[in-house]
Amino acid sequence: YPELGALSTLIKRRVLLDGKIVSLDACGRPSLSRLQHRMNLHRPSATVVHRVPVAYYVFDLLRLDDRSTLGLPYRQRRELLAELDLTGGPIVLTPYFLDTDGQTMLDTAAQYGLHGVVAKRADSVYQPGRRSRWWVQTALRRTQEVVIGGWVPGTRGPAGMLGALLVGLPTDGGLRYVGQVCLGFADAARRELRDRLTVLEQPASPFTDRVPAQIARHARWVAPQLLGEVCYQRWTPHGRLAHPTWGGLRRGKHPAAVQGPVVLVAAPQSTAGVAQERTAAGEQPEAARPDRSALPGPRVQISPHFLYNALAAVSALVRTDPVRARELLMDFAGFTRYCFQSTIERTTLGDELENVERYLALEQARLEERLQVTMHVVPPLLAVALPFLSLQSVVEHAVRDGIEVLPGGGTLAIALVDAGADCLVTVAAPGPWLAEDGALQLVGDRLRLAFGDDYGLVVDAHASTVRLRVPKIRPVPQHR
User: Is the pTM of this model over 0.85?
Assistant: First the structure.
């Protein structure tokens, strides 16, 4: 974390600090998913440091010069910490509030989408390595009324026992899926819910948007007539409930009366600190909301960053290697011509791979030995159809957010596999490119919309691999 070198210029005394390294989202909240892009990178590039900046939030002082401060009251330790005047650049001295009641702090944390509050006694000493009753961490658990739209049988216990509820929120366009609830059920509650839901079963999903295929294939749909309450930690960027727990049925209230909360999310294409409010029940962030009417069409736009880098790489070769510069210009022309075919909905693996090769040639001119490529092609599979730019999107994601951010780069491996009636396209690359999968989720949505719920995209984070499954012969989609 080279940014934290600023500490050496701010501190003129020997100190031992307690704090936390964080990366903030566009709303100014700590984001673990963003910080994962920086973890285990011993020498992050300037691009990574610029794209995912970090800060050091200091909240305690354990030693000052040659004197231990562990036995001093918390209030005094914070006074000594303030005297050091550490704040500057990426160093932040966290605020603390002595004259504000706890409920106000919790309400404020909830308003800004934070995870919770830590309360410390003002006269508490620092006790390394143990959780003291003088320090109390309160995680925020919010409640939300939801409408049950289906359920999934459990894999343990008696056959047919309820395993999870599929819940949604009413919107002007219908019932929107917001997640599955697996926790908080007593055995008696599971039996009661299963019996009541069995009576309400129907053949089709009541949700207006698509339920993930791995859940939908086992789901039993019901008429949206039962209302319940769940506890949850937060809303995810994709408009789903994070870690929901079942609180019980709500009786005597019509499902249409359910309303979602107003949550703070980053505005599309915003800079850090710029945010807008959206209603979680009615609208997801633009980057996360799948536009069903637009999914079959191209979803990738050529980024100005890529255009600049590609042309700069060609320009650098004009004098030293004009033949290669001309070849790269032809690759650039072919790549842009292919991507700008806005009326194309389907392409073939052969055409998509040809465009991917142009893209990789341009990126290798810039990244040089940091980007290695292996490709295994089965010629009969090149005629297989798939949505336009879907493979291109996965490959760009792997290079931009995976290999490029690693100091030593890595190898991108693409393979076509004959899987009987289907074709598997595997893309493997090192780096943190699977930490946030909004772009990949959109590719999966397009594949399922084109070919049905048996097809799509599987992310294997452990192997750092993405697999696209498409049929050799396109079947009639069977949408749930």
Answer: no
